[in-house]
Design a protein that fits this description.
Helices cover 26% and strands 39% of the residues. By secondary structure, it is α+β, with helices and mostly antiparallel strands. It has a single domain, classed as Thiol Ester Dehydrase, Chain A (Roll), CATH 3.10.129. The strands form two sheets. Strands 2-5-6-7-4 form a five-stranded antiparallel beta sheet. A two-stranded parallel ribbon has the order 1-3. Strand 5 and strand 6 form a beta hairpin. The longest helix has 15 residues. It is elongated, with a radius of gyration of 17 Å.
Length: 152
């Protein structure tokens, strides 16, 4: 995470942020996500049945891929100097484009698309994010992710 001034965050619109390192999505992670969300659909948790589908293996939940943004943001996000808390505000748009097969490697690309200080010391930052799958022509997902930073 890069710490920036108030002026720098406002002037960051249009800036491509650093691409994250690759992350391998394992069956253990998929299984743990299934436990947390109670989504035990066979395509995620049964390698034998999933092998008989067009995917040929288990795939990560779309929401698992989406939730990895929190992890990836540690690498790419801009943080306003003096920020003491960051919270999710939501998404303008989320599209799941391609499945993430077990043992695939994913990473995130992000671009700042909007910054506003709607209230004093509250910066709303919108990033266009893409989670790429290594070796795939199509990304796992694209989204517009909005966060709010509270600054002292």
């Amino acid at each position: 995470m890069q710490v920036v001034t108030r002026e720098e965050i406002v002037n960051s619109v249009g800036k491509d942020l650093p691409v994250t390192d690759w992350f391998t999505v394992t069956q253990q992670q998929i299984d743990l996500f299934a436990e947390c969300t109670h989504d035990h659909q066979f395509i995620h948790v049964d390698p034998q049945k999933a092998a008989q589908t067009p995917f040929g293996s288990t795939i990560a939940h779309g929401f698992l891929s989406l939730s990895m943004l929190s992890y990836f943001a540690e690498s790419f996000a801009l943080q306003v100097e003096g920020a003491y808390m960051g919270i999710n505000y939501g998404f303008n748009k989320v599209r799941f484009i391609a499945p993430v097969k077990v043992d695939s490697r994913i990473r995130c690309h992000a671009t700042v698309v909007d910054v506003s200080e709607d209230k004093p010391n509250q910066f709303k930052v919108t990033n266009a994010v893409t989670i790429e799958i290594e070796g795939s022509d199509k990304p796992a997902l694209k989204a517009e992710w909005i966060g709010v930073q509270l600054v002292k």
